[in-house]
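sorry to bug you again but im stuck and you know this stuff better than me. what follows is a protein written twice so to speak, once as letters and once as structure tokens for the fold. id like you to explain what the token line says about the fold, in plain words if possible. anything you notice is useful, everything is just below.
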Amino acid sequence: MTIPSDELLIGYDYDAWYGYAKKIPVCVDVSAKINSHALICGMSGSGKSYLINQYLARICLRDGEDSIVYFADFKQDDSFSHLRGCPRYYPYDKTIEALDEVYDIMHKRQCGEDTSKYFVTLIWDEYIANILSISGKDKKKAGVVMNKVSEIIMLGRSLFIRLIIATQRPEASGFPSGSRINFGQIIIVGASIESVYSMLMPKELIEEVGNRKFHAGEGVMLWQGSELKFIKVPVIRDEEKMKAICINALTRQ
């Protein structure tokens, strides 16, 4: 099946995979026509990092050579070690620099100083842990950071600014003004955790999960706050190619 140019492959339909052994793509629109901010959740061992690597590679291919990607890696574990050394890779003590760069671009576009319309994407891994760390040292600074994140979520779409946040648990304390539920895509991978579902999904949609037992790389995606999909993340056969795509995106001028 050919995937339209505006759409991004997230995974395969979970029910079709297990019920009929069919690979039916689950794709989402990530153009500026719609809210393409994404919140990716999953506990340790859930396959979250594996999904993020795929997501990064596919978003880079979809947006093209003119796009710019920033990667904020608070935890800085081996999952993204191939990105270290890239100019737009920001490790644990420099993640706020990535946010400030993207925030500055957004405001230059908002005031008309920058009229470019290529996508600028910030991927921020372990966001909540990062906020908690900042808050423990300087609560005022943490508030400033969260307000910038909230502003990007609210204003970024029409200015071609995209935010992809990954975290184990999407605690409300990390998202001011209810911005936690204002992501176009909310993806939860790994074993079902009722408390995480209840943070992000209405009760009637949680009930639709039923008795499905998700393993690593499997889970749910809530699309634009109302449409629920059950997904199985693809296995990448050429991981070195995927890594090369990501490195190029974080390096090119």
